[in-house]
Amino acid sequence: MWTLEQLQNLCMDALSVATETIKKTGSAGKVEVVDNDAVNTSTQADHAVSEALCSFFQNSGVPADLHSEELGTVAYSGAEFFIGWDDIDGTDNWRRADGSMPYATIIFVYKGAQPKFKDALVAVVREHVSGNTWYAVKGKGCYFKTKDMKSFQPCHTSGETQLYKKTAVRIDSLAMRDSGHADIAGRLIERAWVKDAGSSGYHVAAVSNGHADAFVNSACKTHEFGAYLLITEAGGFVSDWQGNSYADFTVDFNGKYPIVCAATEELGKKILKLIE
C-alpha cells in the first residue's frame, strides 16, 4: 500500500529525473520534432523527458497507469493510481528564450484508473529557470521552495479579493486567441495587470503562493491543469467559465478545460462576471 508521503517523494524524485534529462539533452534537445500540430511545439527534450519519466515510474513499482503529453497513455490496466505529467510546459520558452523565460515540469497523481478531479492526491511543479518548486498533497496543504531555501514552507494564495489595475492576472493568450476569446483577454487587460509568461502550469502554481492573483485560460490542457491540487490546497478558487467546480468532473487526459484559478472565491466570481 503506497502512502501519500511515498507518492509525494516519488514525484519529487521524478522531478529530479526531468531536470537532469533536460540538462543532458543540451542544445540537441531544442531540436523541434515536427508533427501535425501547427500550434504546439515539441522538441527532442520533451520526448527525452517523457521517456525518462515513463521508465522511472515503471521501475519504481508503483501500481499506476501512466500518461504523458508526448507519449499519451503508456499503459492502462485499471491500476490503483493514475500518474500523468507534462514533460516541458512552456516548450517554446525552453527552445527560444535561452533561460530567460519560465518552463516547467508538472507531475500529478490521481486515485483510480478513471479519476475525477477531486481524486487528485499529489501534484508537483518545478520551474526550471529559477529552480522554484511547488508541491501539494491532498488534505495536507501546499508547499513552496526556492533553490536557495533549505526546506519547503507552507504557501497560500495572495488572498486578493478585488479586480483592479494592480490585480496580477495571468492568461494563456495563445489559447484565448485560438479559441475565439481574444475579446475576453481584452476585457481582462482593461481591468487588471495582465501578463502571459508562456507556461500555463507555471501560472497555476504561481497563484498558489501569491506570485499571481489569478489565472484564466479558455483551453487548459489536462497536463497543465495537473497543478489543480496546488490551488485547492493553498485555499484558492478553481472553476470552469460557468462557475462550476471541477471536483466532480471526470478527468479527460486528452481534454482541454476553460478555467478560472483565483486567490479567493470573491475574486474568481468577479472574473467570471467579466467573462460572461
Structure description:
With 276 residues, this protein is α+β, with helices and mostly antiparallel strands. It has 8 helices and 13 strands. Strands 2-1-3-4-5-6-7-8 form an 8-stranded mixed sheet, with helices on both faces. The protein has a 5-stranded mixed sheet with strand order 10-9-11-13-12. The longest helix is centred in the first third of the chain and has 22 residues, at 4-25. The chain is globular, with a radius of gyration of 17 Å.
CATH homologous superfamily assignment of the largest domain: Fructose-1,6-Bisphosphatase, subunit A, domain 1
Kindly state the mean pLDDT as a whole number?
94
CATH class of the largest domain: Alpha Beta
CATH architecture of the largest domain: 2-Layer Sandwich
Helix content: 25-40%
Instruction: Give the helix/strand class.
Output: alpha+beta
Uncertain residue segments = none
Q: Span between N and C termini?
A: 45 Å
Strands, total number? 13
Secondary-structure element pattern, one letter each: HHEEEHEEEEEEHHEHEHEEH
